[in-house]
UniProtKB/TrEMBL annotation:
Taxonomic lineage: Bacteria, Bacillati, Actinomycetota, Actinomycetes, Streptosporangiales
One GO MF term attached to the UniProt entry: oxidoreductase activity
Protein name as it appears in the record: SDR family oxidoreductase
Keyword Oxidoreductase: yes
One Pfam entry name: adh_short_C2
Length: 256
């Protein structure tokens, strides 16, 4: 893909799943990657796989809910590689203690709301605010945010998660509207059910069967499916795509 070779990208949430797959795909295109995550061991494992395949990457421990930590991720990336050319936001709090207590509006406690919005939404605000000045200074760059198919059709449960993802869609468009003329591209992906580590650990066969039944394809998603799309959106191949939210879910949502 054009515009990835020897460019530097931050994957904010690259220890596992979609983030790890994106980091590995970017590195396979000869990009340099900073793999940030609160799960340092997982980020280091991603970097080890990249290095084994001949790529160049670093692992950085950081917390989406902490301003200083986010700035540290960006500073470390620039110190290591000399620049930053793009950002993939993919982190979220999917823990049992948070997402596991996210239910209906009447069931979900305010602590879950605060934590979900602080990480899933404001975390993306923090990373973007830290990276955007550097992208503007160098004349442009690309940002790809990870939302969710839930933001399209709603969900009878996980209300805080769904609201945080719908807000990411608006944040993504806001960035494109305000800085597109300055060379900034801001797009997002809305995954359907992706068989990453979290989904596999849940082993919810009924959920998997329901998602597959709704799809217009023969299988569920894999992290590599999203990694390929994100890499494309970060690349110069997508230079005429801006402010768009792409549903990547096997055709489960057919819409304009």
């Amino acid at each position: 893909m054009r515009g990835l070779r020897e460019k530097t990208f931050i994957v904010a949430g690259g220890a596992t799943g979609i983030g790890a797959a994106t980091a590995e795909r970017l590195a396979s295109e000869k990009a340099y990657v900073a793999v940030g995550d609160i799960n340092l061991a997982g980020a280091e494992a991603t970097v080890q796989r990249i290095a084994k395949a001949g790529g160049r990457a670093i692992a950085v421990e950081f917390d989406l809910s902490d301003d200083t930590s986010v700035r540290g991720l960006v500073d470390r990336t620039i110190a290591e590689f000399g620049a930053v050319h793009g950002l993939h936001n993919v982190g979220a709090d999917l823990s049992a203690g948070n997402l596991g207590r996210d239910g209906t509006l009447l069931e979900t406690g305010m602590d879950v709301w605060r934590r979900t919005l602080d990480v899933n939404l404001l975390g993306y605000v923090r990373t973007t605010r830290a990276v955007l000045p550097h992208l503007l200074e160098q004349g442009g760059g690309s940002i790809v945010n990870t939302s969710s198919g839930t933001s399209l059709g709603g969900d009878p449960s996980r209300v805080a998660y769904g609201v945080s993802k719908a807000a990411i869609n608006q944040l993504t468009r806001h960035i494109a509207i305000n800085w597109g003329k300055d060379g900034i591209r801001s797009n997002g992906v809305m995954p359907g059910l992706v068989m990453g580590e979290t989904v596999k650990s849940q082993n919810d066969l009924a959920m998997q069967e329901a998602f597959l039944a709704a799809a217009r394809t023969t299988r569920l998603g894999e992290p590599r499916d999203l990694g390929a799309v994100v890499a494309f959106l970060l690349s110069d191949e997508a230079e005429w795509i801006n402010g768009q939210m792409w549903f990547i879910g096997g055709g489960a949502h057919l819409r304009q």
